[in-house]
Amino acid sequence: MNQSDTTLRGGLRRMYANQVNLDFERLWRRSVVLSVVVLLIAGGAWLFRGLNLGIEFEGGTFWEAPLGEYSIAEIRGALATVGQADARIQELGGGVVRVRAEVAPGNTAAVSAVSAALAELGGFSPNDVSFSAVGPSWGEEITGKARLALIVFFIVIAVYIWLRMEWKMAVSALVAVGHDILVTVGFYALFGFEVTPATVIAFLTILGYSLYDTLVVFDKIRGNARTRKDPYFEVVTRSVNEVFMRSVNTTITSVLPVLSLLIIGRFALGAVTLQEFSIALLVGLLAGTYSSLFVAAPLVAWLHVWVTGERPGQRRPSGERRPTAEAPRPRRSGSGPVGRSGVTTSRSHPARPAKKRRK
Protein backbone atom coordinates (compact mmCIF):
# COMPACT_ATOMS: atom_id res chain seq x y z
CA MET A 1 0.00 0.00 0.00
CA ASN A 2 1.54 3.30 -1.09
CA GLN A 3 1.50 6.56 0.78
CA SER A 4 -1.35 8.08 -1.24
CA ASP A 5 -3.66 5.18 -0.38
CA THR A 6 -2.76 5.53 3.28
CA THR A 7 -3.43 9.27 3.17
CA LEU A 8 -6.77 8.72 1.43
CA ARG A 9 -7.86 6.11 3.95
CA GLY A 10 -6.76 8.32 6.81
CA GLY A 11 -8.67 11.26 5.38
CA LEU A 12 -11.83 9.19 4.95
CA ARG A 13 -11.46 7.83 8.48
CA ARG A 14 -11.13 11.33 9.92
CA MET A 15 -14.06 12.47 7.83
CA TYR A 16 -16.39 9.76 9.11
CA ALA A 17 -15.13 10.38 12.64
CA ASN A 18 -16.39 13.98 12.19
CA GLN A 19 -12.84 15.32 12.38
CA VAL A 20 -13.06 17.52 9.29
CA ASN A 21 -11.76 21.07 9.11
CA LEU A 22 -12.63 22.34 5.67
CA ASP A 23 -12.05 25.95 4.72
CA PHE A 24 -15.71 26.74 4.09
CA GLU A 25 -15.05 30.46 3.92
CA ARG A 26 -13.04 29.88 0.74
CA LEU A 27 -15.49 27.25 -0.57
CA TRP A 28 -18.41 29.63 -0.08
CA ARG A 29 -16.86 32.16 -2.46
CA ARG A 30 -16.73 29.50 -5.16
CA SER A 31 -20.20 28.20 -4.35
CA VAL A 32 -21.63 31.65 -5.04
CA VAL A 33 -20.45 31.40 -8.65
CA LEU A 34 -21.76 27.84 -8.97
CA SER A 35 -25.15 28.76 -7.52
CA VAL A 36 -25.53 31.79 -9.77
CA VAL A 37 -24.72 29.74 -12.89
CA VAL A 38 -27.10 26.92 -11.94
CA LEU A 39 -29.91 29.34 -11.09
CA LEU A 40 -29.45 31.22 -14.36
CA ILE A 41 -29.68 27.97 -16.32
CA ALA A 42 -32.70 26.81 -14.32
CA GLY A 43 -34.47 30.16 -14.59
CA GLY A 44 -33.74 30.41 -18.31
CA ALA A 45 -35.11 26.92 -18.94
CA TRP A 46 -38.24 27.76 -16.96
CA LEU A 47 -38.83 31.07 -18.77
CA PHE A 48 -38.00 30.06 -22.33
CA ARG A 49 -38.86 26.35 -22.44
CA GLY A 50 -41.62 26.30 -19.86
CA LEU A 51 -42.89 23.36 -17.87
CA ASN A 52 -44.43 20.29 -19.43
CA LEU A 53 -47.59 20.43 -17.33
CA GLY A 54 -49.66 17.28 -17.07
CA ILE A 55 -53.24 17.05 -18.15
CA GLU A 56 -54.31 17.47 -14.52
CA PHE A 57 -53.05 21.08 -14.62
CA GLU A 58 -53.75 22.17 -18.19
CA GLY A 59 -56.81 20.11 -18.95
CA GLY A 60 -57.39 18.45 -22.30
CA THR A 61 -58.24 15.21 -24.03
CA PHE A 62 -56.16 12.06 -24.06
CA TRP A 63 -56.31 8.44 -25.16
CA GLU A 64 -54.52 5.42 -23.75
CA ALA A 65 -53.88 2.35 -25.87
CA PRO A 66 -51.66 -0.78 -25.69
CA LEU A 67 -49.15 0.39 -28.30
CA GLY A 68 -45.91 -0.11 -26.40
CA GLU A 69 -44.34 -2.17 -29.18
CA TYR A 70 -44.66 0.67 -31.68
CA SER A 71 -42.29 3.60 -31.97
CA ILE A 72 -43.25 7.22 -31.45
CA ALA A 73 -42.81 7.88 -35.17
CA GLU A 74 -45.21 5.08 -36.12
CA ILE A 75 -47.86 6.31 -33.70
CA ARG A 76 -47.47 9.87 -34.93
CA GLY A 77 -47.84 8.69 -38.52
CA ALA A 78 -51.13 6.99 -37.66
CA LEU A 79 -52.37 10.14 -35.95
CA ALA A 80 -51.37 12.26 -38.97
CA THR A 81 -54.01 10.49 -41.03
CA VAL A 82 -56.71 12.08 -38.86
CA GLY A 83 -55.06 15.50 -38.60
CA GLN A 84 -53.39 15.03 -35.19
CA ALA A 85 -49.71 14.91 -36.14
CA ASP A 86 -48.87 17.43 -33.40
CA ALA A 87 -50.33 15.32 -30.60
CA ARG A 88 -48.22 14.59 -27.51
CA ILE A 89 -47.22 10.96 -27.15
CA GLN A 90 -46.01 9.55 -23.84
CA GLU A 91 -44.99 6.03 -22.88
CA LEU A 92 -46.60 5.12 -19.56
CA GLY A 93 -44.94 1.74 -19.09
CA GLY A 94 -46.49 -1.69 -19.17
CA GLY A 95 -46.95 -1.41 -22.94
CA VAL A 96 -49.42 1.49 -22.62
CA VAL A 97 -49.07 4.73 -24.59
CA ARG A 98 -50.89 7.99 -23.83
CA VAL A 99 -51.84 10.32 -26.67
CA ARG A 100 -52.85 13.87 -25.90
CA ALA A 101 -54.46 15.89 -28.66
CA GLU A 102 -56.22 19.24 -29.05
CA VAL A 103 -59.70 17.85 -29.53
CA ALA A 104 -62.82 19.17 -27.86
CA PRO A 105 -64.49 16.48 -25.73
CA GLY A 106 -67.83 17.28 -27.38
CA ASN A 107 -66.46 16.63 -30.87
CA THR A 108 -67.57 13.00 -31.06
CA ALA A 109 -66.44 12.51 -34.66
CA ALA A 110 -62.86 13.64 -33.96
CA VAL A 111 -62.67 11.55 -30.78
CA SER A 112 -63.86 8.44 -32.63
CA ALA A 113 -61.43 9.10 -35.50
CA VAL A 114 -58.42 9.18 -33.15
CA SER A 115 -59.58 6.01 -31.39
CA ALA A 116 -60.05 4.26 -34.73
CA ALA A 117 -56.59 5.32 -35.96
CA LEU A 118 -54.90 3.97 -32.85
CA ALA A 119 -56.91 0.75 -32.98
CA GLU A 120 -56.06 0.24 -36.65
CA LEU A 121 -52.35 0.64 -35.93
CA GLY A 122 -52.41 -1.83 -33.06
CA GLY A 123 -54.81 -4.30 -34.68
CA PHE A 124 -57.39 -4.28 -31.90
CA SER A 125 -60.90 -2.96 -31.36
CA PRO A 126 -61.54 0.77 -30.82
CA ASN A 127 -63.22 -0.24 -27.57
CA ASP A 128 -59.77 -1.16 -26.23
CA VAL A 129 -58.75 2.50 -26.48
CA SER A 130 -59.62 4.43 -23.32
CA PHE A 131 -60.66 8.05 -23.65
CA SER A 132 -60.66 10.73 -20.93
CA ALA A 133 -61.13 14.48 -20.78
CA VAL A 134 -60.23 16.96 -18.06
CA GLY A 135 -61.67 20.46 -18.04
CA PRO A 136 -59.32 23.45 -17.69
CA SER A 137 -61.22 24.71 -14.64
CA TRP A 138 -60.22 21.64 -12.64
CA GLY A 139 -56.59 22.10 -13.66
CA GLU A 140 -56.67 25.75 -12.60
CA GLU A 141 -58.12 24.73 -9.23
CA ILE A 142 -55.29 22.24 -8.63
CA THR A 143 -52.69 24.84 -9.64
CA GLY A 144 -54.22 27.43 -7.31
CA LYS A 145 -54.20 25.02 -4.37
CA ALA A 146 -50.55 24.17 -5.01
CA ARG A 147 -49.59 27.86 -5.02
CA LEU A 148 -51.59 28.51 -1.86
CA ALA A 149 -49.89 25.61 -0.08
CA LEU A 150 -46.49 26.98 -1.08
CA ILE A 151 -47.31 30.51 0.15
CA VAL A 152 -48.65 29.25 3.48
CA PHE A 153 -45.55 27.09 3.90
CA PHE A 154 -43.24 30.07 3.39
CA ILE A 155 -45.15 32.29 5.81
CA VAL A 156 -45.36 29.71 8.60
CA ILE A 157 -41.70 28.76 8.31
CA ALA A 158 -40.53 32.38 8.24
CA VAL A 159 -42.51 33.27 11.36
CA TYR A 160 -41.37 30.16 13.24
CA ILE A 161 -37.66 30.61 12.53
CA TRP A 162 -37.88 34.33 13.27
CA LEU A 163 -39.44 33.72 16.69
CA ARG A 164 -37.42 30.62 17.54
CA MET A 165 -34.02 31.83 16.31
CA GLU A 166 -33.51 35.18 14.55
CA TRP A 167 -34.67 37.00 11.46
CA LYS A 168 -31.35 36.54 9.63
CA MET A 169 -31.77 32.78 9.82
CA ALA A 170 -35.39 33.06 8.66
CA VAL A 171 -34.32 35.01 5.57
CA SER A 172 -31.48 32.57 4.86
CA ALA A 173 -33.77 29.55 5.21
CA LEU A 174 -36.32 30.99 2.79
CA VAL A 175 -33.59 31.80 0.27
CA ALA A 176 -32.25 28.23 0.54
CA VAL A 177 -35.71 26.71 0.06
CA GLY A 178 -36.37 28.99 -2.90
CA HIS A 179 -33.02 27.91 -4.33
CA ASP A 180 -34.07 24.25 -4.10
CA ILE A 181 -37.45 24.89 -5.73
CA LEU A 182 -35.94 26.83 -8.62
CA VAL A 183 -33.25 24.20 -9.22
CA THR A 184 -35.79 21.36 -9.26
CA VAL A 185 -38.30 23.21 -11.43
CA GLY A 186 -35.52 24.27 -13.80
CA PHE A 187 -34.36 20.66 -14.04
CA TYR A 188 -37.87 19.60 -15.07
CA ALA A 189 -38.11 22.41 -17.60
CA LEU A 190 -34.66 21.72 -19.04
CA PHE A 191 -35.23 18.01 -19.64
CA GLY A 192 -38.95 18.19 -20.39
CA PHE A 193 -40.23 15.91 -17.62
CA GLU A 194 -43.98 16.08 -17.13
CA VAL A 195 -45.23 17.84 -14.01
CA THR A 196 -48.02 15.81 -12.40
CA PRO A 197 -49.69 15.80 -8.96
CA ALA A 198 -47.07 13.25 -7.88
CA THR A 199 -44.39 15.78 -8.80
CA VAL A 200 -46.07 18.46 -6.70
CA ILE A 201 -46.17 16.10 -3.71
CA ALA A 202 -42.46 15.44 -4.22
CA PHE A 203 -41.81 19.21 -4.30
CA LEU A 204 -43.52 19.66 -0.93
CA THR A 205 -41.53 16.73 0.46
CA ILE A 206 -38.33 18.38 -0.75
CA LEU A 207 -39.22 21.58 1.10
CA GLY A 208 -39.55 19.70 4.38
CA TYR A 209 -36.25 17.89 3.97
CA SER A 210 -34.33 20.98 2.91
CA LEU A 211 -35.73 22.99 5.79
CA TYR A 212 -34.93 20.29 8.34
CA ASP A 213 -31.31 20.06 7.20
CA THR A 214 -31.00 23.85 7.29
CA LEU A 215 -32.42 24.09 10.81
CA VAL A 216 -29.88 21.54 12.06
CA VAL A 217 -27.08 23.77 10.75
CA PHE A 218 -28.67 26.88 12.27
CA ASP A 219 -29.11 25.23 15.65
CA LYS A 220 -25.42 24.31 15.73
CA ILE A 221 -24.46 27.87 14.76
CA ARG A 222 -26.65 29.34 17.48
CA GLY A 223 -25.22 27.00 20.13
CA ASN A 224 -21.61 27.75 19.22
CA ALA A 225 -22.26 31.50 19.02
CA ARG A 226 -23.49 31.49 22.62
CA THR A 227 -20.43 29.75 24.05
CA ARG A 228 -17.62 31.12 21.87
CA LYS A 229 -16.04 34.54 21.59
CA ASP A 230 -14.55 33.82 18.16
CA PRO A 231 -15.50 35.94 15.13
CA TYR A 232 -18.92 35.02 13.79
CA PHE A 233 -17.49 33.81 10.50
CA GLU A 234 -15.27 31.35 12.38
CA VAL A 235 -18.24 30.23 14.48
CA VAL A 236 -20.27 29.50 11.35
CA THR A 237 -17.35 27.70 9.69
CA ARG A 238 -16.74 25.57 12.76
CA SER A 239 -20.45 24.76 13.03
CA VAL A 240 -20.70 23.67 9.40
CA ASN A 241 -17.63 21.47 9.85
CA GLU A 242 -19.27 19.85 12.87
CA VAL A 243 -22.48 18.97 11.00
CA PHE A 244 -20.91 18.30 7.60
CA MET A 245 -20.67 14.52 7.89
CA ARG A 246 -24.09 14.31 9.46
CA SER A 247 -25.57 16.03 6.40
CA VAL A 248 -23.61 13.82 4.02
CA ASN A 249 -24.61 10.61 5.80
CA THR A 250 -28.26 11.67 5.96
CA THR A 251 -28.24 12.47 2.25
CA ILE A 252 -26.68 9.12 1.33
CA THR A 253 -29.19 7.16 3.38
CA SER A 254 -32.01 9.17 1.79
CA VAL A 255 -30.77 9.03 -1.81
CA LEU A 256 -30.23 5.26 -1.91
CA PRO A 257 -33.91 4.36 -1.35
CA VAL A 258 -34.97 7.03 -3.85
CA LEU A 259 -32.57 5.59 -6.44
CA SER A 260 -33.96 2.11 -5.89
CA LEU A 261 -37.48 3.54 -6.21
CA LEU A 262 -36.52 5.18 -9.50
CA ILE A 263 -34.77 2.14 -10.97
CA ILE A 264 -37.29 -0.47 -9.85
CA GLY A 265 -40.32 1.69 -10.49
CA ARG A 266 -39.23 2.79 -13.96
CA PHE A 267 -37.47 -0.21 -15.44
CA ALA A 268 -38.83 -3.18 -13.48
CA LEU A 269 -42.44 -2.20 -12.78
CA GLY A 270 -42.94 0.38 -15.50
CA ALA A 271 -44.74 2.67 -13.05
CA VAL A 272 -44.52 6.19 -14.44
CA THR A 273 -45.95 7.69 -11.25
CA LEU A 274 -43.03 6.32 -9.25
CA GLN A 275 -40.62 7.71 -11.82
CA GLU A 276 -42.14 11.19 -11.64
CA PHE A 277 -42.10 11.15 -7.84
CA SER A 278 -38.57 9.77 -7.45
CA ILE A 279 -36.91 12.09 -9.99
CA ALA A 280 -38.19 15.16 -8.18
CA LEU A 281 -37.14 13.70 -4.83
CA LEU A 282 -33.65 12.84 -6.07
CA VAL A 283 -32.95 16.29 -7.48
CA GLY A 284 -34.45 17.98 -4.43
CA LEU A 285 -32.45 15.92 -1.92
CA LEU A 286 -29.17 16.80 -3.58
CA ALA A 287 -30.12 20.46 -3.94
CA GLY A 288 -31.32 20.62 -0.32
CA THR A 289 -28.08 19.25 1.08
CA TYR A 290 -26.07 21.70 -1.00
CA SER A 291 -28.21 24.70 -0.06
CA SER A 292 -28.09 24.03 3.69
CA LEU A 293 -24.27 24.04 3.68
CA PHE A 294 -23.43 26.42 0.83
CA VAL A 295 -26.39 28.81 0.64
CA ALA A 296 -28.10 29.16 4.02
CA ALA A 297 -24.99 29.01 6.24
CA PRO A 298 -22.86 31.60 4.39
CA LEU A 299 -25.87 33.87 3.94
CA VAL A 300 -26.37 33.97 7.72
CA ALA A 301 -22.71 34.92 8.19
CA TRP A 302 -22.82 37.62 5.51
CA LEU A 303 -26.05 39.08 6.90
CA HIS A 304 -24.46 39.21 10.36
CA VAL A 305 -21.46 41.10 8.97
CA TRP A 306 -23.73 43.45 7.05
CA VAL A 307 -25.91 44.23 10.10
CA THR A 308 -23.25 44.43 12.81
CA GLY A 309 -20.32 45.69 10.74
CA GLU A 310 -18.11 42.99 12.22
CA ARG A 311 -15.01 42.42 10.12
CA PRO A 312 -13.76 38.89 9.37
CA GLY A 313 -11.32 37.89 12.09
CA GLN A 314 -12.66 40.45 14.57
CA ARG A 315 -13.43 39.03 18.00
CA ARG A 316 -16.92 39.68 19.31
CA PRO A 317 -17.54 41.61 22.56
CA SER A 318 -17.30 39.59 25.72
CA GLY A 319 -20.94 40.27 26.48
CA GLU A 320 -21.93 37.91 23.66
CA ARG A 321 -20.13 35.04 25.27
CA ARG A 322 -21.60 32.93 28.02
CA PRO A 323 -18.97 32.29 30.75
CA THR A 324 -18.13 28.66 31.13
CA ALA A 325 -15.73 28.66 34.08
CA GLU A 326 -14.21 31.20 36.43
CA ALA A 327 -10.61 32.03 35.63
CA PRO A 328 -8.10 31.43 38.46
CA ARG A 329 -7.15 34.51 40.41
CA PRO A 330 -3.50 35.59 40.32
CA ARG A 331 -1.52 35.13 43.52
CA ARG A 332 -0.95 38.37 45.41
CA SER A 333 2.51 39.43 46.42
CA GLY A 334 3.29 38.93 50.05
CA SER A 335 0.80 36.17 50.48
CA GLY A 336 1.56 33.02 52.30
CA PRO A 337 1.88 29.51 51.09
CA VAL A 338 -0.97 27.57 49.58
CA GLY A 339 -2.75 25.34 52.05
CA ARG A 340 -4.10 21.86 51.56
CA SER A 341 -7.50 23.16 50.53
CA GLY A 342 -5.93 25.15 47.70
CA VAL A 343 -6.63 28.54 49.34
CA THR A 344 -3.77 30.98 49.60
CA THR A 345 -3.19 32.07 53.20
CA SER A 346 -2.11 35.60 54.11
CA ARG A 347 -0.76 37.30 57.25
CA SER A 348 -2.04 40.52 58.81
CA HIS A 349 1.32 41.41 60.53
CA PRO A 350 4.97 41.13 59.46
CA ALA A 351 6.89 37.99 60.28
CA ARG A 352 8.66 37.86 63.69
CA PRO A 353 12.45 38.12 63.36
CA ALA A 354 14.47 35.08 64.36
CA LYS A 355 16.04 35.01 67.82
CA LYS A 356 19.79 35.26 68.19
CA ARG A 357 21.50 32.32 69.82
CA ARG A 358 23.66 32.89 72.91
CA LYS A 359 27.30 32.04 72.72
Can I get a quick summary?
The chain is α+β, with helices and mostly antiparallel strands. It is built from ten helices and six strands, in the order H-H-E-H-E-H-E-E-H-E-H-H-E-H-H-H. The longest helix is centred in the last third of the chain and has 37 residues, at 232-268.
Question: What is the element layout, followed by pairings?
Answer:
Blueprint lengths: L2 H14 L7 H26 L2 E2 L1 H4 L1 E6 L6 H9 L7 E6 L2 E6 L6 H15 L7 E5 L1 H29 L2 H25 L2 E2 L1 H31 L4 H37 L3 H37 L51
Helix pairs in contact: 2-7, 4-5, 6-7, 7-8, 7-10, 8-9, 8-10, 9-10
What does this structure look like?
The protein has helices at residues 3-16, 24-49, 55-58, 72-80, 108-122, 136-164, 167-191, 197-227, 232-268, 272-308, and strands at residues 52-53, 60-65, 88-93, 96-101, 130-134, 194-195. The chain has 359 residues and is of the alpha+beta class. The protein has two domains: 19-52 and 138-308, Multidrug efflux transporter AcrB transmembrane domain (Multidrug efflux transporter AcrB transmembrane fold, Up-down Bundle), CATH 1.20.1640; 60-134, 2-Layer Sandwich (Alpha-Beta Plaits). The longest helix is centred in the last third of the chain and has 37 residues, at 232-268. The radius of gyration is 33 Å and the shape is elongated.
Please bin the fraction of helical residues. 55-70%
What fraction of residues sit in β-strands?
5-15%
- Which architecture of the largest domain per CATH? Up-down Bundle
CATH fold topology of the largest domain? Multidrug efflux transporter AcrB transmembrane fold
- Round the Cα radius of gyration to an integer and report it: 33 Å
Could you describe the largest sheet, including whether it forms a barrel?
4 strands, antiparallel
Find the count of extended strands (DSSP E, 2+ residues).
Answer: 6
Distance N to C terminus = 84 Å
User: H/E order of the elements?
Assistant: HHEHEHEEHEHHEHHH
Instruction: Name the CATH superfamily classification of the largest domain.
Output: Multidrug efflux transporter AcrB transmembrane domain
